Amino acid sequence: MPKRICTLGWDEYQALPLDEKITYLMQPDGNPYHTLFAQQFGLDLLTRLATLTNEIRAIAKSRNGTAFLSSLLAHKRAMLYFSQPSSRTFLSFASACQILGMPLGEVRDTAISSEFKGESREDSVRTFSSYYDLIIMRTPEKGLAERMAWVLSSSDRPIPIINAGSGQDQHPTQALLDVYTLLRSFEKTGGLPGKTIVFCGDLLRGRTVRSLSSLLLNYPGIRQIFVAPGPLQVGADVQEMLRARNVAFDLTDDLREAIRQSDAVYMTRIQDEWDNEKGESARIDTRRFTFGAGELALLPKDAVILHPLPRRDEIATVVDNDPRAMYWRQMRNGMWIRTALIAATFGCEKQINAYYRSE
Ligand code: NCD
């Protein structure tokens, strides 16, 4: 690492602006060491990761290729520490590690770990680092993955952390797979720059929206349209970020009009697990923020529909078989780009590039 996060005290590190924090999280080759924020991924890195992902997919098609990939990190072990529900993120990271040959451990239920006996999270994470070489972590608490990255880097066994979702705040690897899906979707229609991306649903509390909105800043000319019921409209922090970068954006509650203008529609579910009081979300009228046959008829022919999943009823199942519905492919893309991220974190990028060229 060019600078090490542990050369600073926690309070000193915490006080840094995000741009400066990020310099402590990256490796000299431009890859992340700890992956905590979407803002760590600039255009060069995104382009390299997308290429690496394409190469990994191609290599994985043959038995020899699969054997090559699974030899790359057979000497490293990964720990999945998920103290919040997950299906896709957990399984796609587990699969990514398996593709690279990494043996896995997991803690998903802190009620059966020593945290239940009163062990601090700091001590838990240091314990994991005694046995593993990578921690992939999901938590309901904003900032906890970051704190743990600092704890580990300050310990005598510094190992990388990947944030697999932290509170309402960040979900950087979801944003990676979302951007990768958009890049692939627009391969034949002029690429991602200049496109109009519509976000719909619970934009206030959805961490995938916050991370993706920020990652899209890397591509010029993108317009972002946020469609939500008033109480769930995207937060002031996202709006300020877009304003500061002079990015065109609109806030609206008219999904149908937004669909007509879209190149991609990113649907999200209502995040009612964050309600301050029971039934708070249920009182919001969300009926106009769903995508069904009527909305499909308005969608431009080259536009695509994404969803981080899980869905409830915000996308009707009749939409699933439309060729513009990308959410199943998007999910599988997650496994491949997470494989690429882990490989890049552990310095395997050049080896994969060389194998791909030699085949
Ligand atoms: C998302 C999450 O956990 O933030 N799920 C996921 O990782 N694909 C979205 C959600 O839960 O709504």
Give a short synopsis of this structure.
40% of the residues lie in helices and 12% in strands. The chain has 359 residues and is α/β, with parallel strands linked by helices.
Show the helix and strand layout.
Layout: H1 10-14, H2 18-23, H3 43-59, H4 63-72, E1 78-82, H5 88-99, E2 104-107, H6 121-131, E3 134-139, H7 144-153, E4 161-166, H8 172-185, E5 196-200, H9 207-215, E6 223-227, H10 236-244, E7 249-252, H11 255-261, E8 264-267, H12 293-298, E9 304-306, H13 327-345, H14 349-358
Parallel strand pairs: 1-2, 1-3, 3-4, 5-6, 5-8, 6-7, 8-9
Helix pairs in contact: 3-13, 3-14, 5-13, 6-7, 8-9, 8-13
Bound molecules: N-carbamoyl-L-aspartate.
The site of N-carbamoyl-L-aspartate (NCD) has 10 residues, from helix 5 and helix 9.
